Amino acid sequence: MEGRQVASRGPAGLIPCLASFATGWRDLTPHGDAGRSPGASGRALIRLPEHDVPPHSYRHADRTAFPSHPVVTQMLLTRRTPTHRMALITGASSGIGEGFAEELPDATGLLLVARNAARLQALERRLTRPGRPIVPVPADLTTDAGRSAVIEQAEAHGVDLLINNAGRGQLGRVIDHAPEEERATIELNVTTTLVLTRALLPGMLERARAAGRRAGLIIVSSEAAFAPLPYFATHAASKAFNLVLAESLAEELRGEPVDVMALCPGATRTDFGRRAGFAAGNWPGAADPRAVAREALGALGRRNVLVSGRLRRAALSPVTVQRAIAARGLGCLIGWIASRQPADDEPKPVARRAHRGTMPQ
User: Over pLDDT 70: what percentage of the chain?
Assistant: First the structure.
């Protein structure tokens, strides 16, 4: 695959990777104007390194959203993805999941997953267009049976965009919640996200390579992922897992035909807060779920982590930039170490030790 492979499988792979990682810092100007296009008022034309992204991927970026520093931009921005053919959306019956279903173009078929069959059917009727496949899949994603049913449907319909949106949480102290409620949160927020991602990514990549297209993966995390959150501990911990998983996958799959992004919304007008025991949707400034989904779809292929809302994104940008730097640097180092390990089917060398007073055999 042309374009974005960073660490080679050979022993010299670490040096080019680290060199490309460091190039942007060397070119940083005192006024932070590296990469600005002449005549671009208030906007920066970011040119990604030619060895890493093809020339057609030059982008105008909002300077309040994307730092104009080249290496930071390279880590936060990737390619804009084309329209996908079939999207799987979990938690599609309401909130941000429903927003994704409404915002995806008519050319994208939909596999809609949620427990509420009636809502899925209503959504199907509302979004049906001639020639557009829409498949409602009622399933309980906290169970192995539910996850297996969704995976089977996804493979049968050739999904090339996976949106892991379903989530739950409960306000209060962990010790005050029923153990089965806490476990259900982990099953849905963590286990389901990992199981669906691991099961579907290989097929998505294979189809993308064969068709010369790009697949997409959106993992819905939360602003709660960035700090400890007492009285919402299990939910926040699960969203931290989602964030780290997406950031790590984005680096592991660098060079593969897939765009990976973690979406981190803040307070949003959904049913989540009501089910969790508080009215987050009534907070001042709570976002419209459809607007959150629209922003996420526009950012897929451009950045690996999206904090929804310009003000919140600006407030968290020091954290997201540091995490992007860490992901890229560690990706170079650990990727190189991993490439040096023998494959599972390769014989491992046997250490031979000569004992004192004996000759080695």
Answer: 68
pLDDT band at 18 (very low <50, low <70, confident <90, very high): low
Q: For residue 263, which of 311, 222, 216 has the smallest C-alpha distance?
A: 222
- Helix, strand and coil content of the chain, in percent to the nearest 5, comes to 45, 15, 40
Cα(161)–Cα(163) distance, integer angstroms: 7
99-104: long-range pairs with CB below 8 Å, 24+: 99/288, 99/289, 99/290, 99/291, 99/292, 99/293, 99/294, 100/163, 100/165, 100/218, 100/293, 100/296, 100/297, 101/127, 102/127, 102/290, 102/293, 103/290, 103/293, 103/294, 103/297, 104/161, 104/297
Q: Which of 146-155, 196-205, 281-290 is the least confident region? A: 281-290
Q: At a CB cut-off of 8 Å and minimum separation 6, what does 41 contact?
A: none
Instruction: Give the separation between CA 9 and CA 2, rounded to whole angstroms.
Output: 15
User: Which CATH code, of 3.30.428.10, 3.40.30.10, 3.20.20.70, 3.40.50.720, is assigned to 86-301?
Assistant: 3.40.50.720
pLDDT in tens, 49-93: 333 333 333 233 333 344 444 445 444 444 454 689 999 999 999
What confidence tens digit (pLDDT) does each residue in 233-243 have? 999 999 999 99
pLDDT in tens, 325-350: 988 899 898 988 888 887 766 555 54
Contact (Cβ atoms closer than 8 angstroms) between residue 328 and residue 75:
yes
Domain ranges of the chain: 86-301
What region, left, alpha or beta, does residue 131 occupy, with left being phi > 0 and alpha being psi -120 to 50 degrees? left
φ/ψ of residue 153, rounded to 5: -65, -40
Give the ranges where the chain is alpha helix by DSSP (H): 14-26, 70-76, 95-103, 117-127, 144-156, 179-186, 193-211, 233-252, 272-276, 289-299, 310-339
Which helix (H) or strand (E) element contains residue 54? none
User: What residue has token string 């030059």?
Assistant: 58
User: From residue 205, how far is each of 75, 86, 162, 230 by CA, in Å?
Assistant: 21, 14, 12, 39
Is this model's pTM higher than 0.85 or not?
no
